[in-house]
Design goal:
three-stranded antiparallel beta sheet, mainly alpha
């Protein structure tokens, strides 16, 4: 138990302090319009999601999580009572509200239990803790940064046609499958390059977000600290206030304050940091996985899984032949169709491409034979 002695006041604090993360849930209704806009944005973003699971984590789920946490913290900071101070008995209820508002604005200062409280304002200024005020906006900016890759992908893939064509594919529509197969047979649209750049943008964004967390917090080892010893987001801190006595002289009061918003940030911000670092690792491994498309042997293996062993000889010629149309862009399109719509449409499109290749090869062989005959 920690005993803090104040003028005419004795406070008993139980350690450790566990913040009530759900105390502000009823206030979520106050930002209903904001949450509805976030949901509408999520639907718009998901309409052109043709990437794999890691892509969706980067450009869909992570922004939604960050936007939701930002909205929740804004509600908690501005529509509730994020800080509670134990004031001297001379303070009336109104003055207590003023003190808490002033402490919330200035941030207060944190002093570890094994150190003495600074006496001068200059020394206390060095221990100020007000990062919590910027956390909702930092999370908002991080969520917007996650959308950069999505914007680049939709803009350039829309010009190329890959994203729109995959989104427009209809289930069991042979004609749309045939048109898309003809589109994939044409080389030079750069879909694989664009998709790889898109993944590298996601990885770069993870690095930028980790760097931003380190820049704003100054260190990363606080992730493992408790709310009581956390210097970045201390649950308990002090606020200094001043009042004028009847004789005209100024009296200084030192009030301990329980900062619930800080305690919540001490859980949310490290969780976001761990999430983004984990996401960066998954994205890096995902890039390595997709670069395997450079290997024709791996392309052959993917198509054999789709079509089965009965077509293995034709598929081998399709992949390795110089006249084959299975470019990097084509296999990228087939895999994206499989991710979005399942194996059935991807298999059907691959069969159409293989049939077109076989027909073209037979036609060329007949032409060569006719020339030899004449």
């Amino acid at each position: 138990m920690l005993m803090l002695t104040l003028p005419s006041l004795e406070l008993s604090v139980a350690v450790p302090y566990i913040p009530d993360l759900f105390s502000s849930l009823p206030s979520i209704f106050l930002c209903y319009d904001m949450l509805r806009d976030i949901a509408d944005t999520a639907k718009a973003l998901k309409s052109l999601n043709i990437g794999d699971f890691v892509d969706n984590l980067n450009i869909f789920w992570t922004p939604i999580i960050l936007f939701g946490l930002s909205a929740w913290l804004i509600v908690k900071d501005y529509s509730m009572r994020p800080i509670r101070c134990v004031c001297p008995k001379e303070y009336k209820e109104t003055w207590e509200d003023v003190l808490e508002a002033d402490c919330l604005r200035r941030g207060g200062f944190y002093v570890p239990l094994n150190q003495t409280i600074p006496r001068t304002r200059e020394e206390r200024q060095m221990h100020r803790s007000n990062l919590y005020m910027w956390i909702p906006y930092i999370l908002l900016l991080q969520g917007l940064c996650c959308l950069i890759g999505k914007i680049v992908w939709v803009f350039f893939a829309g010009k190329d046609g890959m994203a729109w064509k995959i989104s427009a594919l209809k289930q069991d529509d042979k004609e749309s499958y045939r048109q898309f197969a003809e589109y994939l047979s044409k080389s030079g649209h750069g879909s694989w390059t664009l998709y790889t750049v898109f993944k590298f943008i996601n990885l770069l964004n993870c690095g930028v977000n980790i760097g931003a967390i380190y820049y704003y917090s100054g260190k990363l080892y606080w992730i493992m600290e408790s709310a009581e010893t956390n210097r970045i987001f201390p649950a308990w801190k002090y606020c200094d206030s001043y009042s004028r006595a009847l004789g005209g002289h100024i009296v200084e009061h030192l009030c301990p304050c329980l900062h619930e918003a800080n305690a919540v940030c001490a859980i949310i911000f490290p969780a976001v940091a761990i999430w983004i670092m984990t996401l960066a690792a998954f994205t890096f491994l995902n890039i390595i996985y997709w670069t395997r498309l450079l290997s024709k042997k791996w392309r052959l293996d993917r198509l054999n899984r789709l079509l089965g062993p009965s077509k293995s000889d034709d598929v081998r010629m399709f992949v390795y032949s110089k006249t084959g149309n299975l470019s990097l862009d084509a296999i990228t399109g087939i895999m994206l169709v499989q991710i979005r719509g399942g194996s059935k449409p991807a298999e059907e499109i691959t069969r159409i491409m293989l049939e077109n290749y076989s027909a073209s090869r037979n036609c060329n062989e007949v032409t060569v034979d006719n020339k030899k005959t004449h």
